[in-house]
Design brief:
Number of helices: 10
Largest sheet: 5 strands, mixed
Number of strands: 5
Number of domains: 2
Strand order of the largest sheet: 1-2-3-5-4
Strand content: 5-15%
Structural class: alpha+beta
Order of helices and strands: HHHHHHHHEHEEHEE
Helix content: 55-70%
Shape: rod-shaped
Length: 392
Amino acid sequence: MAVRLPRPHSDDVRIAVGGLLGGLLLWGLGLFPRPPGDDGLVLWSPEWAALVPLTVTAACELLRRTLPRTGMLIGVLMLTLDTVTRGNVITVVLFTDLVYAAVLYGTPASARRIPWISGLLTVLGAVVPLAVWQKPEAILIGVAVGVVALAPATTGWLVRNHRDAAETARLRAEQTALLAEMDRAQAVGAERARMARELHDMVANHLSAIAIHSTAALTLDDPKTSRDALTVIRENSVEGLSEMRRLIGILRDSSGDLEPVAAPTLDGLDALVEGARTNGLDVTLDAGHGTLPTPVELAAYRIVQESLTNALKHASPGRVTVALAQQDGSLTVRVTSPFGDRGGPRAPGSGAGLVGMQERTALLDGTFEAGPEDSPDGKIWAVRATLPVMTN
């Protein structure tokens, strides 16, 4: 089975053709590095003999990227052959490029070994002839080896290191950009989830009250009941619109004259409970806590708010209790309401409220439970959240 050589790079083809044409031009002009009979060093004296290493070395340029080490080894043989002919300067120039390419495009092992081997040959080329001939001119052999082998090998090693460093920097930049995009996507997702929780907690309570009281006004043929229901509907509409405007203020760019929106705190529980009573719930509040971090206060307030909204929508008639207790480095929030079939009008639920409470608790590394329980007064629905109190 025939082995198909890789296709050479277009630049390598240009180098090979250009080198061959340049060598032929020097050969045609009769410009040879070594005249005939030059101290007996020229063993193959016909002028055409110099074309053999020139042609083969130029052909090796086609392998400088695909098979760089093979091209260099063949180039070593052709350079040796060139030294026993009239010679050609272009052959030497092409060989230096083969050494450079072997370091630049070869394997990492070749890139490490070729500079060391060429350096060793440079030293030997200077020391051995000097020791044998005892003439200072003998050092020039080492200089020639350094120019032909060590210099291109060192250049290739420097260029390769620079290229590898640039590639590493590029990959690192791509990874950094990818991580930044992932962080941005996560931040956007987290912000969207936060805004969804805020929107639900701020508006759902008022809309639930509006839905329940409007249903009561439509189903009960009693002017006083309808008037009371419309009063509650108007109050919740105004408050819901105010909450919505505050939420829009958060979303807008605050470069204008918008005032910063203050996060609700547990100091507003009394007003929250009073609003629930206005909407028809029988609520008792027992809040025993000290100074708390802002995130804990916001989470506790929203959990109580959503629990009262759920009680308004789903709870049976009866007592709703809200209890907050701080002990052992944590704040416990517990809201209970009667559990059972609701006889009057009710608002539909999506389950997003429980998810939001659970997410708020998880963000503070707390625990959250919600479900039906048995009590001396019958079956109740209990919401319990334990929020760690982080101290600075």
